[in-house]
């Protein structure tokens, strides 16, 4: 089986979507599939064609090297248009090199993949959602030029939709996409051989997040200012980077918490920080299925997360209502409302002061992730879905 993965941006531009594409591609190749990734050439210093951890990657011309910088809207639109043209040409020229198209994110590259791959070349196209809530694929696609048309076209013509969270699936059902064409396949991760084995006390609290509004790092900083008034020995480690970095550092300074907050920056591998942490916090305003939360749980870290996206199904408590300023104990962790520093502070302090709860939640969380979210299991579910789609078309 030959799979062409389409993703708008890829390594060295790294986020949750890109990590999942890389992990899946590596696992597919390990299982005997032929895989290649096609993406945009947004950083001119990167190679157009290379092998990334055994996965062939090709970057289509996209007019300008954005390199994470803000550009004029017109330039951005031209770049996107050129990328869609180059993607269309690539799919057509390489049509004999793949059996099925797998598109990461239901955005404009998905529209192009369906238009050219399915309508013109008669190849099956499977689209995977990335996020829900404030940053859902549906909301983002509608913001593009003729985005409403693109969305309607996708809903009518794609061969299936993969939702990585139940919240994401519900959003597509609400706009009329048939439930029978939605496959729920969560994100997967590599499970570490060993988990945390000591829960005696808490010194280091960790978050891993992109510095953007939807990730809610500002909410965590406000909560942290309350936490250290009662637990002064604690340190907050923030791993990540992004457009709000200077704003967040200024907020930390204005809150008077600089001495107990470490902005670590972006790291290629966050596992050493997870291994040394005592508690993980995810303060997002919106999520799909958080890789960072999955990884923290896989190490046996007790976790606090907001009640958005896939966080609810990971920590257990999908149907639990939470009053503002409060928190709820789920099966595998503690849930709080987004944008609620008081509730987040209370949840952190509750874990800090309850060793038996930390250990129970940490152990249960690791067991839950091992059972349901290993990349090997997730890859097998994708392969079964691919085969089912191809069999229906044969």
Largest sheet: 8 strands, mixed
The count of helical stretches stands at 14
Overall pLDDT level: 93
Overall outline:
globular
Quickly give the CATH architecture of the largest domain.
3-Layer(aba) Sandwich
Rg for CA atoms: 21 Å
Number of strands: 15
**CATH class placement of the largest domain:** Alpha Beta
End-to-end C-alpha gap = 14 Å
How many domains?
2
Please list the strands of the largest sheet in the order they lie side by side: 3-4-2-1-5-6-7-8
Helical content class: 40-55%
Question: Quick gist of this model?
Answer:
Helix 10 (291-298) links the parallel strand 12 and strand 13. Helix content is 42%, strand content 18%.
Care to describe what's here?
The protein has 394 residues and is α/β, with parallel strands linked by helices. The protein has 2 domains: 2-188 and 374-393, Glycogen Phosphorylase B (Rossmann fold, 3-Layer(aba) Sandwich), CATH 3.40.50; 204-372, Glycogen Phosphorylase B (Rossmann fold, 3-Layer(aba) Sandwich), CATH 3.40.50. It has 14 helices and 15 strands. The strands form 2 sheets. It has an 8-stranded mixed β-sheet with strand order 3-4-2-1-5-6-7-8, sandwiched between helices. A 7-stranded mixed β-sheet has the order 11-10-9-12-13-15-14, with helices on both faces. Helix 1 crosses helix 14, helix 2 (73-93) packs parallel to helix 3 and helix 3 (108-120) packs across helix 5 (147-157). The longest helix has 21 residues, at 73-93. It is globular. Residues 65-69 have low confidence and may be disordered.
């Amino acid at each position: 089986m030959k799979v062409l993965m389409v993703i708008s941006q890829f390594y060295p531009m790294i986020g949750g979507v890109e990590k999942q594409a890389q992990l899946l591609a590596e696992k597919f190749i390990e299982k005997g599939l032929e895989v290649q990734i096609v993406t945009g050439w947004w950083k001119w210093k990167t190679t157009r064609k290379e092998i990334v951890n055994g996965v062939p990657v090709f970057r289509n011309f996209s007019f300008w090297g954005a390199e994470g910088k803000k550009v004029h809207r017109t330039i951005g639109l031209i770049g996107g248009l050129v990328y869609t043209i180059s993607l269309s040409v690539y799919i057509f020229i390489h049509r004999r090199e793949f059996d099925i198209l797998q598109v990461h994110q239901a955005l404009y590259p998905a529209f192009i993949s369906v238009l050219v791959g399915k309508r013109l070349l008669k190849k099956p196209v499977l689209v995977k959602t990335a996020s829900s809530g404030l940053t859902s694929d549906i909301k983002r696609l509608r913001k593009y030029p003729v985005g409403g048309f693109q969305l309607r076209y996708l809903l009518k013509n794609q061969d299936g939709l993969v939702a990585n969270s139940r919240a994401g699936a519900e959003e597509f059902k609400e706009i009329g996409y048939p439930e029978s064409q939605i496959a729920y396949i969560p994100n997967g991760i590599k499970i570490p051989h060993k988990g945390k084995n000591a829960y005696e006390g808490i010194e280091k609290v960790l978050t891993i997040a992109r510095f953007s509004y939807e990730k809610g790092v500002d909410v965590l900083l406000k909560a942290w200012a309350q936490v250290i008034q009662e637990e002064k020995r604690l340190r907050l480690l923030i791993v990540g980077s992004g457009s709000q970095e200077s704003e967040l550092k200024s907020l930390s300074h204005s809150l008077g918490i600089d001495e107990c907050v470490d902005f670590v920056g972006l790291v290629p591998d966050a596992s050493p920080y997870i291994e040394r942490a005592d508690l993980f916090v995810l303060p997002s305003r919106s999520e799909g299925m958080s890789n960072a939360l999955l990884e923290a749980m896989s190490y046996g870290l007790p976790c606090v997360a907001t009640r958005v996206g896939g966080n609810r199904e990971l920590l257990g408590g999908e149907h639990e209502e939470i009053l503002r300023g409060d928190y709820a104990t789920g099966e595998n962790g503690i849930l709080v409302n987004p944008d609620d520093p008081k509730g987040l502070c209370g949840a952190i302090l509750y874990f800090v002061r309850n060793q038996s709860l930390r250990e129970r939640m940490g152990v249960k969380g690791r067991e839950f992730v091992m059972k349901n979210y290993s990349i090997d299991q997730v890859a097998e579910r994708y392969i079964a879905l691919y085969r089912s789609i191809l069999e229906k078309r044969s």
